[in-house]
Amino acid sequence: MTDTRRNSFARAYIAKQKIPYSNFIFNGCFSFTHRDKNLLLSPDTGTTIIVDNTLANNIKNCLFDDSLLLKLIQRRFVTNTNDHDVHSIHHDLFPTFFLIDITSSCNFSCTYCFRKRNDDEILISDSVLDDICEFIKLHCNTNDLRHIDIQPWGGEPLLALNKIERIYNAFSGTDINIHISLETNGSLLTEKTLRALAAMRVSVGISIDGPPEVQDSQRCFKNGDPSSSVLEKNISRLHAIKGLQNVNAICVLTPESSLHVDEILEYFGRKLRIPHVKVNFAHSSNFSPYEGLSTTSAAIETPLRDILLSIRRLYKEDIVINEGNISQRLKNLLLRDSSSICISRGCVGGYKMVSFDRWGNIFPCELLDYPDEKIGNIYDGKPLGAIVQDAVKTHRYFIPKTSPSCLDCPWRYYCQGGCTSALTYAGKHPPQIDDAQCLINNFLYPELIKMCLSEPDLVNAMLEMDILQ
């Protein structure tokens, strides 16, 4: 006889209620049940707790012993009747992630590139780059920030390796610790360049879309030559370089390549030996003929389901794939992690991250090709904090994104209407929401909760920590 409970998964809502004979209120939560385990999620605070059926029923019936009540208070499921701040999300106006556009040059011609392509190849000048670094230093010293992230951007940033070294040297000898991360097409990773990056402790993300038949159909050199053989050679070389930080792959799924998800992840894990992969959907742009992803449930759910199936299959073969978007959502659920600029608390561009173009203009995210999105300039005579504060009050980028469907969405704390940059690329603006992100969250989060309740070993392996029993 088939055990019908084995694959059962149910979602319910436990209503808000006052706890008898106390000054406490249970604020309501979503309950996700698989067999004898329940994950409770507060859509207002993003906190979770995993309990058995007995404790879940006690919560539904407003029966709390001291131990359970304390755990629920710690996770903000329960608050004092005088606490009116449970629904608030506060963003610090102190950016700590800085993207600097150092070159418009690129030696690739990718089918889905969303950047404005210019015939003129422009490097940032040394004087402007130095001024941007001084501007960041002033911001750090004013706000006592001692750890920041900087990402040189392009174009292909390794065509301007000397500019990356200039950024690194600008902060050497200061008490500001910088972590440089880099996304590169991988074609210029010679041994000399890899050793230079290792000396600066740079985290390297390689943009590669999969095995040769996928890579060469989407990411060719500018002259039309295939790129896969060059990348395979360079990636084999980087494994021998000591000191490289957090090497990972960034893969873009198009409607065509989404048919080959299993082969793509197999290629990363087995052939390239890069287990840390971030799979992003291609999107449309005003500067590209590429139409981007269809925002239909089938176009999004099918490749996401294939990613999960492939991760499970490879795990059984002792190959752990840590897919960045999935791992971050697991951290959101289990750790209430806030490290992602994009998907932990919605878009926090401007709050945690700003970008600088090659003339010192400041943008709240990677929207450097959209002049209307500029929020200031390093030469305005104002500190960064003041520029951001003024922009939050007046700029459309910071208008909250919402729709009626957001009001009763379990994932609203993490999503906050999705990616504002994606809206801009699609010719939309807040308060409209990012429909693609909505579909992704509505599919992925329930699947990941099932994984937490039924496959804790896989979750622990993906997160590289023993968080679930």
Commentary on this structure:
The longest helix has 20 residues, at 297-316. The chain has 469 residues and is of the alpha/beta class. The radius of gyration is 23 Å and the shape is globular. It has 2 domains: 10-80, no CATH class; 97-355, Aldolase class I (TIM Barrel, Alpha-Beta Barrel), CATH 3.20.20.70. Helix 3 runs parallel beside helix 4, helix 9 (297-316) packs parallel to helix 14 (435-454) and helix 10 packs across helix 14. The strands form 4 sheets. A 10-stranded mixed beta sheet has the order 16-15-14-12-11-10-8-17-18-19. A 4-stranded antiparallel beta sheet has the order 1-4-5-6, with helices on both faces. A 3-stranded antiparallel beta sheet has the order 2-3-7. A hairpin with a 5-residue loop joins strand 2 and strand 3. The protein is built from 15 helices and 19 strands.
Strand order within the widest sheet?
16-15-14-12-11-10-8-17-18-19
Could you tell me the mean pLDDT?
A: 92
Poorly predicted runs of 5 or more residues: 1-6
CATH architecture field of the largest domain:
Alpha-Beta Barrel
By secondary-structure content and strand pairing, the structural class works out as alpha/beta
Q: State the separation between the terminal residues, measured CA to CA.
A: 29 Å
The CATH superfamily label of the largest domain reads Aldolase class I
